[in-house]
Amino acid sequence: MNKQKVSKWLAGALPLTLLAGALAACGGGNSDSGVSPSPASPSASSGGASPTASASTDPTQLSGTVKIWDWDETFQKGMIPEFNKKYPNIKVEVTVVNPNDYLQKLQSGIASGSDVPDIILGEEAYRGKLFDLDVLDNLEQAPYNFDRSSVLDYTIPFISNSKGQVVAVDQAITPAGFAYRRDLAKQYWGTDDPAELEKLLSTWDDFIAKGTELKEKSGGKVLMFPGLGDAFLVLRNQNVVPYVNGSDVDLTAKLKGPIDTLFKMRDAGILGKNELWTPAWSASMAKGEFMFYPMAPWGPKWHISANDPEGKGRWGLVKAPEAGFARGGTAVGIYKDSKVKEAAWAFVNFAYQSEEGSLYNFKTFGNMTSNKAFYEKEKATFDAPGAYDEFFGGQNLARYFLDNIIPDMKGAPQSKYDSVVDSVMNALYPLWTKDTSITADAALEKFKTEFKNKAPDANVK
């Protein structure tokens, strides 16, 4: 995410706090993250026995001190004691690092060879850059033996490097749809039922047509999105086409479709003029000026209820036209030169993939694992009413995220150039808002120019 957004997440948005029922059950897999069994080996300072799913593995025989850098100290303070109930002889030391400084601090540590954690986090804004550094271990090899088939299929590209190696697991999955104002949908479209809205908004052409209708019926008082930034992040994240091959960067393949659709919305007059994360953008949620806001599972707490505290019952969740999309997310990997790989994997596997860790994670923080088996085994937990279901008109957010949004989601291959795309996008979309004489074709060419300025090594198409 962009830097404006990071400050919000520092307040706790990465742990999807208390979002009970954020996803529904799904099938398949096993409760041990698909980790292959391996025989126990003697405990040692390097971590001891492999923390794989085997009856012969004794967690008490694993030892070592594991270092992790994280910006979410609250999560670690809660999870580590739970982890130590099973792995009493592994010490986990946490250094709190601002996500804005994380990658630079990591690169400095690697360069000096003095200060690198065993467990490394890659937030959405720089995940591709982290993977490109080639400092994370391949988790599908020993001593980890991670099974990619154990996690939701769409997540694989988000945790794989350019070689196709799985080098991380998801801290939490972040499928996204649209939060919408039920009162406005009922008033202007005659229904606030998510199923009916899905039919009305099945394509982006439908979205533009209903937006035009909304603008006309409301006399321009209610529009579809607060601004171009909201629309663009959806369109761009839906287009998961690979656009990087070495230093060849095909921005046309990645952005032409999204920009064309964005400018159709802009020229139809159905988007507001607010920039993301500004006070006006936040305040608009309570004012009823816009119908939709892109929303991942962390959104009910950190966006909607926070900015519209009196809005209980007047919100709903609906999938985006044509496809789901990811919003936010953090990858968790292990430093390839770590001296405590097995102990580090014990913690990563427990906290983000195991059944017991995932259940504590969900019930305490609302974080949702990518592990398929968890939803099968904990079906009753996710079928139960969630903390924000009532705020969303009694809608079962759990069922909706999984049954309506995740099935058609696809993951985007990660690249070091993703952060450059974000930077250019954040610089240009306010200009597209103010100067309506800029065309979609001109916007794409300007995007290429600015991208080239920030990434002179790239061969831009």
Folded structure, characterized:
With 461 residues, the chain is an alpha+beta fold. It has 18 helices and twelve strands. It has helices at 3-13, 73-86, 99-112, 127-132, 182-189, 194-200, 204-217, 228-238, 251-268, 279-287, 299-307, 341-352, 355-365, 372-377, 379-383, 397-405, 418-434, 440-454, and strands at residues 64-70, 90-96, 119-123, 169-170, 175-181, 244-245, 248-249, 292-295, 315-318, 325-326, 330-334, 459-460. Strands 5, 8, 9 and 10 form a four-stranded antiparallel β-sheet that branches. The chain has a three-stranded antiparallel β-sheet with strand order 3-11-4. A hairpin with a 2-residue loop joins strand 6 (244-245) and strand 7 (248-249). Helix 2 packs antiparallel against helix 13 (355-365). The radius of gyration is 22 Å and the shape is globular. The model is unreliable at 1-56 (pLDDT under 50).
What is the H/E string?
A: HEHEHEHEEHHHHEEHHEHEEEHHHHHHHE
Helix content: 40-55%
Shape: globular
**Rg:** 22 Å
Structural class: alpha+beta
Percent range for β-strand residues: 5-15%
End-to-end separation in angstroms reads 24 Å
- Which whole number gives the mean pLDDT? 87
Oligomer: single chain
**Largest sheet: number of strands, sense, barrel closure:** 4 strands, antiparallel
- Number of β-strand runs: 12
Uncertain runs with pLDDT below 50, 5 residues or more?
1-56
Count of helical segments? 18
